[in-house]
Amino acid sequence: MKSLHRAVPQVALVGLVLVVLLAAIVPVGAAPATTTTTYTLYGYVTQPTGAPNPVPGGVTVSLVSQATNQTYTTTTIGSSGQFTFSSATNAPGLAPGWWGAWVAPQAKLSLSGCNPSCAAIPQNPSPTFSYFSAANLGSGGTGTPVTITGVSILPYSSTLNGTVTYAGRTVVSTVEILDAAYNGFVLSSNTTSSNGSYSLRAPEGTWVAETVVPGPTTHYNFTRVVINAAHEFRNISANNYLISGFENIAGTSPAVHVPNGGNVTIYDPNNGYIYSGETSPGGFYSFGTYPLNFASGPQPFDVFLSPVGYSTAYYAQAVSANSPVYQNVAVTSITPPAVYSTVLNFSGLTLGTTGNGTLSVNTTAQLSSNAVLPYFANASVGDLWSQLGLDYNSSVYFPASSLGAAASAIQSAGPFFPAVQAATTVNGTAFTEPATNTFTYASTCTTGSCGPTSTATLTLNYAQSYALSSTLRANNSQYTLQFDYRYPTRAQTFVYNVVLPQGYSLAAGTTAPANTQLSATGSGNTWTSFSLTPLSSCLGRGTATLSIVKYGGVTAVVNASISSFTFSQANV
Question: 193 with 216: CB under 8 angstroms?
Answer without folding.
Answer: no
